[in-house]
Each structure stands twice: as C-alpha cells, then as structure tokens.
Amino acid sequence: MIQQSPLTVLSEVIPERVASLRQLLLQIDQDVESNATIPFSLFPSVHFARFVIIEPMIEQGKTHPTWLAFSANFDGDLPSLLAELYDKAGSGFDLVYGHCLGYKPGGIGAFSEYILRKKMPYPNAFYVGHRGLSVATILLQNKIRTAIENFLNAIPQQDNSPEQIKQNIVNHLNTNYSSLMKEAPPEIKLKSIWEPILIAAAVLIFIGLIFGWHVLGWILLTLIVLLGIGYAVLRMKEETDPQIEIKSEVTLTSQITSLTNREDFTVQNQLTHLVAIKPGLFRLGLLKLVLWGINLLAMVLYNKGKLGNIPTIHFARWVIIDEGKRLLFFSNFDGSWESYLGDFVDKAAVGLTGVWSNTDLFPKTKNLIQNGATDEQRFKYWTRVHQIPTQVWYTAYKSLSVVNVLNNNLIHQGLFKTMTPEECQEWLSKL
Amino acid sequence: METLDYSDIQGLLIRGYKTLPTSAFLLCHAHDRNLLRPFLKDLTPTVTSGSVNPQTHAVNIAFTKEGIKQLDLSFKNDFSLEFNDGMTSPFRQRILGDYNDNAPNTWEWGKPGENDTHFMLMIYAVNREQLDERLNQLQVQLKNHQINAWHTLPSQKLPHDKEHFGFHDGISQPTLREMQHKRKDNVNNVVASGEFIFGYKNEYEKLPLSPVLADNFDLGKNGSYMVFRQIKQDVKGFWNYMMEKSENKIPEAIQLAAAMVGRHPSGTPLTLSPTEDHKEKKLSEANDFGYYHADKLGLKCPVGAHIRKANPRDGMNDDPEESVSVSKKHRILRRGRPYGEPLAPSAEPEDLIQSSKNSDVGLYFICFNTNIGRQFEFIQQQWMNNKKFDHLYNDPDPIIGIDGKPPVNGIQKPDQLGEFTVQACPVRRKLTDVPQFTYVKGGAYFFMPGINALKKIAGL
C-alpha cells in the first residue's frame, strides 16, 4: 500500500530578503500549476503543498526568526520526493531558498542536505482523509468514473438488469479505455484500533510478569495519583486562564479580508493557523499528549475518511515550532471556511478543544475538552485572529472532494470484483 | 424558557402576513440626514409589531448599512462583518456566485457603490385600495422629510401560495423554540429563536452577537438581519426545458420539474409521494418528514433537489441525529413574495406550459437570520451552489444554484451548465445541460430593528 507522508521544512529567512521572497512567492502563486519558477503540476507525487512566511515571534528579549515554511503531502519516500522536486524545478527551489540563511545552491546534493537539515520531525499529529490512494491513483480513478458516467449519459441503461449494466460498463471500458483498465485497484489495509490496545496490554502484562504484579500495581497507582494532581492543576488553570474577547475592530476586518481574498476559488480551501502555546511545561506537555493521542486515533480509528465525524479533510497536521512556543496547523479541506469551522464546532469540538485549549486566549474550557470550541462565535473569531495567509498553495486534484475521491475508489474496486445482483445494484448507486 | 417580547419585535418576523396578499417595498433615500430622525419619529408609531395580527395593513422598516451611517451612531460593538461588507463585496460576490447574468453591476438596484438605499419600507395590505391608501399617506410623510422613495418593488401573491414556476412555496419554516406552544411541531423543526431574533439564545445556547451602541444600548435586541434578493424567474425557459427533456409530454415534464423542486406543484413532498401530487393540506403542506430512513439514496426525492439542498434535514453525512442538529444551525425564516403578472392566472404548471405570454416575473427572496455568514450565505454557498453537496459531484441547485466563478486573469468565463442527477434503480438518470432558470436582479443586506431600537434611533 502506498504511504502518504508529510514534509514540513522551516528555514530562517534572511531579514533583508523577506520582501523579495514575498514578491517571488506571489509570482509563483499567480499560476501555481505552471509558473516558470516552481510549476507544481510537474510533481506527480505531491497531493498538496504550500509555502508560508511565518512572522517572527518576540518573547522576553528573544526574537525568533522569520520562517519560511514549506509543506507537502506526498507519496513514497522523502529522497524520491526531493529528487523529483529538484529534477523538475531545481533552479526555482534554489531561487526560493536563496532567500534563506545557510542555503548554497549546489545541485540536488546540496538541496537534499539542506532540506533534511531544516526538516521538522514527523508532525505531532497528522491526518490523511484518503489513505492508500496515491495522486496517480486518484487521478486514474477519476478518469475511470468520468468514462463510466459519459457512457451512461450516452447510452441509457434503464431497461437492463444491474448485472447487465455492470457488464456493459466493463466491456465499454475494456474496449475503449483499455489503458485505464491495465492496473488493478490498490489494496488498502488499514490499521485496527486493537493494535495499540493489544500492545498496551502486552506491555502491562510483561511488566507484571517480569517485575512482579505488585510493581505493576505501584506503577498504576502512581499514574493515577499523577493524573489526579494533573487534573487539579488543569482545573485551577482553566478557571484563571484568560479567554479572547470579541472586538469589531477595523484592523481585524482588514486582516480577515486579506484571508477571505484567497478563499473559495475551487472546491477546496486551505487553512494555516499559528498560535502561541500557553507558557509553562504543563500546557506544553499536555498539548503533546493530546496531539499524540489524536495522531494515534488518526491512524487506527479515523482512517476511513472522517476525522471525528468531519468528512471533508484531505490532509491536516499540527506541528509544534519555536522550541515549544508556538503551534502551527495546516489543513486542506473541502468547502468554505464557515463550513469547515462549523464542522469543528458541531462534529469535533472535543478533540479540537483538547488541542487548542493549551494555546493563548482560547475560549474558556472545562475538563480540557468541554466548552471551548462550542462557544461558536468566540471560537470562530479566535480562529480568524490566529489564522495567517498562505503565500503559495497547490492542490493536485482541485475539483475533487474527499467524498468524491473515496467514492471513485469504491467504483474502481467494484469494477474488478465479481458481484451478486444485489451488490451490482449497490455498486451502481455510487454512480 | 424565555418568552418573546412580541410588542418589541416587528411583525414580519413573527408572521408572514398571509392575509395581506398585496405589498410594496419602497427603497428610500434621505436627502437631508437631519430630517431622517424626524421622519422616523413620525413613522415609528405606525410600525406594525408582532403583538397584533393586522387585518387591513402592516408597515415594517429595515435599514441598509448606508442608512445606519446617516444616523451617526457610535458603537461599542459594531454590526457584523457580513452586514458592513455588503452583499456585493468581491468576497461575498464569490460566495454567492453572482457573476455574468447575476453580476451585481447589472442589477436594477443594490449595485456596488450605489448608496441610494438608506432604508426599505415594507407595506402589506389586504387589497390594492388599502395599499394605495397607505402609500398615499406615506408619500406625504416622505415628501415632508425630503425622503425619496426612488424605487418601488410591488408584489402580489399568487393563488395557493405559488411561486411563478407553479409550485406551492414557503411551506417549510422553522418553528421558533419560544413559540412552540402556539404551533405544535416535530422537535426536528423547532429552532432556537436566537437564530432569527437578537436577544435570545441561538442553537449553541449563546446570545447571537448584536450591535451595541456606545452607551451600552443593545441596538440589535428584538431585531434581525434581513436578506433581500430580487430573483427573476425565466418561467418560459424553465418549462421549455422540462418539455424538451420529456418528449413534450406534459405529465412527464411536470414530474421532472417536481424532481428538481423536491415537491409536486401542490406542495406534496416527493419523499412522501414520489409520483403523485395531492391537493389535500395533509400532504400539500406536509413538512414532518426526513430523508435518512425514508429515502437515503434519493430514489424518491433526488439528493440534489431544491428542497433537499435548502434544508437537508436528517439526510447528511450518514448520521441522521447529527444531520438534524447541524441543519438547525443553518435555517432561515423565509418571508419571500412573488412579483409580476403570472404567465397564466392560475399559476398551475399545465396552464403555464401552454401560455403564450412572457412577462417579467420573479421572487423577492426575503429571509431573516442573526448570523448572515452561518445562515443565509452558508445555505447559498455550501448547499445551493455547492456541486459537491452530500455525495454529489457536479450538481448545483437546479432552481437557484449558481456555479458562478470569478474571472481568471481578467477573463470572465460564462457560468457552466449544471448537472442534475435523478437517482434511480437500476441506475441514475443524469441531465448534463441544466441552464440557469433564475437571475439575481438586485439585493442588499438590511437590519430590521426592534421597536425600542427604532425609537432609540429616532430619538424618541
């Protein structure tokens, strides 16, 4: 099964070159697919990609640098991706990274070495909406579905039986679109939630067997006490942590307008969000723990196209940056910002509150995961305040929703299966 | 439970004035802002509140952001971004899909930068004479205060509450939570009053953000945002298309149109009666139904049908309970009225199809909500215009969905024809060339204040 992976690169921008970089990125974004600098459509393994300039954070006497963030969701392994990027747009990447400290153009070797050095560790949490489907597969499956739809439009099949219709479709594709039928659909194996449960149980039993059951008992007891203390500390903090107050300032209006200016041009949208983590190790530790949990659930439970119950997210990631000071969030989703944020509140408030309650001025929470995001207007306002513009954004299949991608896969899988009449009927209902 | 302060709420929010079928909406411009307050002082006592059920006529008033500006108020909390931004800002134009034939610069009123409308007077009357009488009185008042009612939008209801395509309109309305003792309804259709009226809790159990003056006076209280869009209907084009796709057979053409609407001409929902229309109220006004259990796949009422897209009920995301709860966050109170002479007096599809007339007709789409972005705009963008609604690929709403896209590098492409999928066994039928049947000809976002707020504005 093909693995989709995240790449996040943070490079320090040379302060005098920020303006020039901004200009360059603007040019790239004007025609992101086929501009002369980095024509993104030439990268067959990239699902989504973005460049973001991250303004420096100033904290007590220390100024963090201006970052250039590059992120990609890609198929296969990192060395192949880097080779692909540099092969197709080496001079473009040289030009972009020429604005960053410590980059010396010197061919693929220098580029790879630089990226590997500046690359962030695996995100604290990473979500994939359509696991096991490469860009190539997604595009192929869309061609297959389109060919079937065109066939049904041209030659009505209402009077045939489901099996006959399916057979006619298969024959039509084999005759006229044999190239689409060469490859069997990918086999997708998803992890099960039992895996982590069994591993945890095994570890506990192992400790009990080796060190004695009383040791295990003490460990569990200590954990419970620590949890209790942690909970008490959390409740105290939740009572006193300040929350954002909604203001209707002109400055915010222009900030929001600069974001909405770039929204709703295609089926999909993107969001880049950056917020300071509440000071102290307690919140940082808690945040890491929650993100670890979400990352685990994204792999073993939310791996069939819905995060929480949100069916519109292609890829999303949370990355802690600036030595634990700020939390960066990238997301690629279907539909409008209003719809996406509405889904956050209506379908996944618990998880998102668990994450963002550890960051600055988040709406008041209770027990880590309660309230918070359900304060709808305040939460949406808070999100806009911390949302930052994305200078360059690329999507490889801009006319497809997550639901479309997954449905196309089911159509493709079905083509290669023998089916009962009932199964044929169910398969036809996907068209 | 809170109780609604009916005497402080303008009547149109509480009732649709069904017994007052004749109406006129006056777009007004105040030439001398110093005379605006005196005018409002005069007008306020005649404004109809929700505590009376008017028998002869009703008067309501709503302001545009330009009108609010004339009043020189200072705010602690301003109006919402949507209201201040306006219906025709580049972003909202994109959300609403208003390009080409719908482009705001082609509108009859409400064009970008026009600033001519400060407020709208909405006059409803039991008949033509009553309306004229009321209008004549108003003309004097307006003239005395140098207010120019520069454009009048007249309206006459059609028989059986029809719109101009010949379908029973305005059936599905949310029941306000604070009014459910007056109107028994399925709990799935009971929505918190704060979704429509400021000063009450919304579906999130919070008070909707309301404009507040510098002296802490809650200007929004018992008021609402009113969305007004003039939508021209191409009745000839609509029925010609249905006939063309039905081998010129009238019953088939009507059935196809019903599939696009989701209700038969009398109002009977396809979900309850897929192929047969029923005139009796129990079905023609039926609203107590869902999609998940009755028709998940759209075999009775297509998934992309107008009423299913405008209010998906329990049919979204394979989760009926969640779907109902999400739907409730995207409801509007509709108060639309038709305009123009119907192509046939009965407004019945059979007669419309055979009519040789062609006249300028349409709908004044009027709705109320307290959060324009989450309610009206969401519905238009995420459900009506969105080709990807539910499991669909390329189906904007066949009646009012607009797949309008902004110009690319300065070049405005024509809007794409829509697709419409009629789910069926063994396999779907798909129309791939659905043209636009409706055109936006004007519109604006208004604020309809409560009576006390109106007094405050007027300086009473």
Walkthrough of the structure:
The complex is a heterodimer of chains A (431) and B (460). Chain A is of the alpha+beta class. Chain A folds into three domains: 1-120, Alpha-Beta Plaits, CATH 3.30.70; 137-185 and 401-428, no CATH class; 192-400, no CATH class. Chain A is built from 14 helices and twelve strands. In chain A, strands 1-5-2-12 form a four-stranded antiparallel sheet. Chain A has a four-stranded antiparallel sheet with strand order 6-8-9-7. In chain A, a hairpin with a 4-residue loop joins strand 8 and strand 9. The longest helix of chain A has 28 residues, at 213-240. In chain B, the strands form five sheets. In chain B, strands 9, 10, 11, 12 and 15 form a five-stranded antiparallel sheet that branches. Chain B has a four-stranded antiparallel sheet with strand order 2-4-1-5. Chain B is an alpha+beta fold. Chain B has a domain at 6-229 and 443-458. Chain B is built from 15 helices and 15 strands. The interface between A and B is large, with 44 and 47 residues.
Continuous helix count of chain A: 14
Element order of chain B: H for helix, E for strand? HEHEHEHHEHEEEEEHHHHHHEEHEHEEEH
The unreliable regions of chain B are: none
Low-confidence stretches of chain A: none
Please describe the topology of this protein.
The complex is a heterodimer of chains A (431) and B (460).
Chain A: E1 4-12, H1 18-30, E2 46-54, E3 58-59, E4 62-63, E5 67-75, H2 78-97, H3 107-118, E6 125-128, H4 135-154, H5 162-176, H6 194-211, H7 213-240, H8 250-260, E7 268-276, H9 281-300, E8 313-321, E9 326-334, H10 337-347, H11 349-356, E10 365-366, E11 370-371, H12 376-386, E12 392-395, H13 402-415, H14 421-428
Antiparallel strand pairs in A: 1-5, 2-5, 2-12, 3-4, 6-8, 7-9, 8-9, 10-11
Helix pairs in contact in A: 2-3, 4-13, 5-14, 6-7, 9-11
Chain B: H1 11-14, E1 22-30, H2 33-43, E2 57-63, H3 65-70, E3 75-77, H4 81-85, H5 90-96, E4 119-125, H6 128-144, E5 147-156, E6 175-176, E7 190-191, E8 212-213, E9 224-233, H7 235-244, H8 250-261, H9 281-284, H10 292-295, H11 306-310, H12 320-327, E10 333-334, E11 337-339, H13 349-354, E12 361-369, H14 376-384, E13 418-422, E14 429-434, E15 438-448, H15 451-458
Parallel strand pairs in B: 6-7
Antiparallel strand pairs in B: 1-4, 1-5, 2-4, 3-8, 9-12, 9-15, 10-12, 11-12, 13-14
Helix pairs in contact in B: 2-15, 7-8
